[in-house]
Specification:
This protein is mainly α and about 160 residues long. The longest helix has about 45 residues.
C-alpha cells in the first residue's frame, strides 16, 4: 500500500535533520565525512519518519494518489494503442484529439441518420393510415400497404 507507493517514486530521500547542538559537537561532526543532512534512510525508515508528522502523512497520501494516477495513465495509454490498432491507425500519425473528433463526428452523423430513418418511417406509417381510411371510406378492403402475394391461380378462383 503506502510502502509500494513509496517504492514507485524514484529518488525520494527524506533527510533527517537533528536539532542544533553545541559548536564543539558540530565541529566533531564536521570531522566525519557525513553530516546529518547526508544520512540516507531505508524506505521503511522514511515512511516511519513521514508518519510522525502531519505534513509527512499528507506526503504519503499524495505519493499513493500520484502512483494511482500513473497507473491510470499507463492503462489509458495501452487502451488508446489498442483503439488505434483496431481502427488501423498509426500512433505516430494519429493524435488523440484527431481520433476522438473523428469518432464524435461519426456518432453525430449516425444519430442524425437514425433520426432521419425514424422520421421517414413515421411519415410512411401516417400515409398508410390515410390511405387505409380513404379506402375504407370508399368501401374497399384495406391493403395494409402490402401487395397480394397469393399465386395467380388462387386469385382467379376467388373471383
Amino acid at each position: 500500500d503506502i510502502l509500494d507507493a513509496g517504492r514507485a517514486l524514484i529518488g525520494l530521500s527524506i533527510p533527517v535533520i537533528q536539532p542544533k547542538t553545541s559548536e564543539k559537537k558540530k565541529k566533531d561532526d564536521d570531522d566525519d565525512s557525513l553530516n546529518d543532512a547526508e544520512i540516507e534512510l531505508s524506505l521503511e525508515e522514511e515512511v516511519e519518519a513521514l508518519r510522525a508528522t502531519p505534513i509527512g502523512i499528507f506526503t504519503l497520501s499524495a505519493i499513493k494518489y500520484v502512483s494511482s494516477l500513473r497507473d491510470k495513465v499507463d492503462d489509458t495509454r495501452a487502451k488508446y494503442r489498442q483503439l488505434l490498432e483496431y481502427f488501423g491507425e498509426e500512433e505516430e500519425t494519429m493524435q488523440p484529439h484527431e481520433l476522438f473528433s473523428t469518432i464524435a463526428k461519426f456518432c453525430r452523423d449516425f444519430e442524425k441518420a437514425k433520426d432521419d430513418v425514424a422520421a421517414k418511417e413515421k411519415r410512411k406509417q401516417r400515409e398508410d393510415m390515410k390511405r387505409a381510411k380513404a379506402n375504407q371510406a370508399a368501401g374497399r378492403p384495406p391493403t395494409h400497404g402490402t401487395p397480394d402475394r397469393r399465386p395467380q391461380q388462387q386469385k382467379s378462383m376467388l373471383r
